[in-house]
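Predict the assembly for these two chains.
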Amino acid sequence: MKIIERTKIWYTISIAIILVGAAFLIFRGMNFDIEFAGGTMVQIDIGQEFDARGDIEPIVREITGDTNPQVQKVSGTGGATQVSIKVKEITTEQIEQLYTAIAEKYGLDTVDNANLISHSSISPTVSGEMQRTAVVATSVAALLMLLYITFRFKDWRFGLSSIIALLHDVLIVIAMYAIFQIPVNNTFIAAILTIVGYSINNTIVVFDRIRENTRLYRQDQLDQLCDDSIMQTLSRSINTSLTTIVMVLVLFILGVQSVRWFAFPLLVGFLAGTYSSIFIASPTWVLLKGIGRKGKKGGQAVKRVKHA
Amino acid sequence: MKSLKNVFILLLTLLIIAGSAIVTFVGIGGRGGDYSDRFGVLNIKLGLDLAGGVSITYQAEEGSNPSSSQMEGALAVIQNRLDSKGYTEAQAYLDGTDRIRVEIPGVKDANAAVEDIGKTAMLTFVGFDWDDIKNSSIMDKYYDLYVQDAIAALKEQDGEDAEYSESELLTEAKTYLPQQAYYTVMTYPEILTDALEAGLAEEVLTGSDVADASYQRGQLSQNSAVQSYVKLELNAEGREKFAEATEKYEGKYIAIRLDETVCSMPTVNSVITDGVAQITGMSGEEEAKSLAADIRGGALPVRLVDIEHNSVGATLGQDAMQTSVTAAIIGFILILIFMIVYYRIPGVAASIALLFYITLELFFINLLDITLTLPGIAGIILSIGMAVDANVIIFARINEELRGGRGLLVSIESGFKKALSAILDGNVTTLIAAAVLWFLGSGTIKGFAQTLALGIVISMFTALVVTRLLIQQCVALISKNPKLYRSIHVKKA
């Protein structure tokens, strides 16, 4: 299979997805969850045992329009009979509606909102400080990975290509968050970090083969070197992806809604990670080789020699 | 002889794996009681998202009317403290305008947690001239207190009919207390509050002027005893203020207070311009360490009172945990089936090694007291993926060698050898990322990094050592037929 030769196609597919994501990001924005954006907390004394997920959560979704509310049982002195509902910022009328709906469901007093313990606006649990820390930590990690790969592979192009592949995967996943309006919360950070780890590992396995095969090919056979190396590691790439994807797929099928919101981006990220290790990382490396060697048209020159 | 040795190795390996599985899934320790599952999987602490926890509500002291920036400052301090006390999975947020809520997973005793989060006290440095105070009317109240205390002490000593003269005691108080600044302030620390109100003392520094506080042990001067103390390092602003204050109060006192309690009350011997101060007078190492941690955690800009403790349910819903565990088990079994069907004997060996990997991972999560959350589970999923990957890389290599027409043992050896560089580089790179996130990250990120780092180290061990050991024994004992070591799918060369 001629993968390097069709670099443009692979790049186009990826860039198209990322651009669609960017368009959604600009026009619809990200669906920031209460953990990131803060919101409203409503506490109600139900006065009896209740089913938080089966009964209350659907009411909350319907009235507030929040796709990922947090409905928690709260135990006071009389057992777990209170409910704490955290949703994105809602109006006083919506609070009233929410209370009335829940009160009717459990036959509570609707006059004077007698069982409404409190409602207040709450701040995000993931503060701006924490978000900054996350970005700084990820950047430092990326830099150190770049240095390590450069050191181990004795070629900075391998390091840079791995990081570009990694960035690609992260962008694809962020695009999915924007397109499908997946709630951005704590699990968003975890999903991104998981994909960072997965992506880099996948890329390295292919690069390891290229490193090993380098002495078997001439300097002008870079395309062949990469294509062969990718093919030799293909069964491993497929099998590994298959197993990890199965793991997450089962989680997606069986999980509750909030777990699904987590499993879905992971699924996309794992697919993107596999894709980029085959179709993005090595082509980028070849491209960088060309630029480093003969100026901008170098890559083309290499290709022509091979076909001759 | 040789095969006896192989039987022994195989049995020993399987025994260790079975033993660890029993320890992890059933638990060991006493029968019944709280310790029956000391290392059991049920003993693992679950995060707020999966199992809920304790919710603690703090409210700003009445009448303090905190500004929103003060509340945000207080929130940041509390978040810091939670992190430094190991509650990495706790969540803290502002509730309304004057409350802070903290939700901590895996904690049964809310009071202990409140204690642990630390004092909600304010740190202040109060400079004063004792001569001003001792000659003021503030003292009257404390003369009376002294008399009452003395009477109480006498009664304790001699019983209810102890003999004393109140007027004599009052005279004693009036001569003794003014002479003994240190005794008076330490015994009646409220005197400084009165002095501050009367303008006879001033707050020269607060907690926000402190850059760092650390526990120290040693002599503070040549003749003093070795003692535990807290070394305070002030920031630039604090340094300047402290230099001014020590100049103004040279030969007088600067008391270091937490709320009203006076921690230490040094006499200012010289102007201090380097911005380093010591707090002495702690009962021992423990107290000094905890005080240093409290100060380092930051001094609160507002005084908080904890008004309510509740237990709260899982934020992801009560079924999140159950369904995730079921999913993980099913997914894992599917992987094992795939490995065995596709890779045959090596697949069986890898499956056993993976089982071992899971038990070890759970064991260490338990041992290191890591709180498991959904992101933490993501870390585990990723490391399972990498553990499987390591095996897949090795088996693909063994396949290639076999297809190249090499002998079985040579192929296995060379397969492991050639796979090593890819596995090592892939794992080390991910480990670098995990380590950075562990040390720089907070909260969720830290939890994720912990399970991931742990998983990578364990998976390298199980894939490179355990799988290999098992395959070698299989070759020696079960079959030397290369077909059983090749993947089913014979690929086009």
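Chain A has two domains: 4-32+127-307, 39-122. Residues 252 and 259 of chain A are 7 Å apart (CA to CA).
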